[in-house]
Amino acid sequence: MSTSKQQASAPRLALPELLIGIGLLICAGAVAWQTLAIPVSPLYSKVGPTVFPYITMAGMIVLSLLLILAAIRGGWQPQEEKETPTDWKAMGFVAAGLVANLLLIQPLGFTAASVIMFVLVCFGFGSRHPLRDALLGLVLAFAAYFGFAKALGVNIGAGVIENQLNALLGAAFSGKGG
């Protein structure tokens, strides 16, 4: 009888969680593969352009192994969460937001594509205030755009909005200098 009780109480393999751990391990492999492709000059003595990707890869490997171990032990989700059905409509809105961003960033620019994505993702998470979401998305997109474009000098997709705002800011600051 104790054998059947032990089998009944033994944790079962949590397949979805196992797949997440394996997926993260595959992503770590992709990071390793791409990091090996980074050209490294012999002028770098110890710290070169591959240090942080290798640190990231090591962290991903550790996390993926911990996730796989947790999945083998029965998973990390409580039983109540495992029994909750997936809201495919909400997931569809989130996926639509990501796809919209991917398709619209080139023709519209980073800001417009990000605002559309933000509104769709918020709707997927249950928000029913699209104007508020669009305004918040606009503030966050401007902060991200100017953080990357102006502070870091990284072009992340200037479109009509960004070009107009850059022209406006350029005119405002050039007028003060003279």
Provide an overview of this structure.
The protein has 178 residues and is mainly α. It contains eight helices and no strands. The chain has helices at 2-9, 15-36, 51-72, 79-83, 88-108, 110-124, 130-152, 160-177. Helix 5 packs antiparallel against helix 6 and helix 6 (110-124) crosses helix 7 (130-152). The longest helix is centred in the last third of the chain and has 23 residues, at 130-152. It is flat, with a radius of gyration of 23 Å. The mean pLDDT is 87.
Overall mean pLDDT stands at: 87
Number of strands: 0
Q: What is the count of DSSP helices, taking H or I runs of 4+ residues?
A: 8
What is the C-alpha radius of gyration, as a whole number of Å?
A: 23 Å
Q: Give the terminus-to-terminus CA distance.
A: 91 Å
Percent in strands: under 5%
Low-confidence stretches: none
Described by the principal axes of the CA atoms, the overall outline is flat
Order of helices and strands: HHHHHHHH
Classify the oligomer.
Answer: single chain
Helix-strand makeup class: mainly alpha
The biggest beta sheet, please? none
Q: Helical content, roughly? A: over 70%
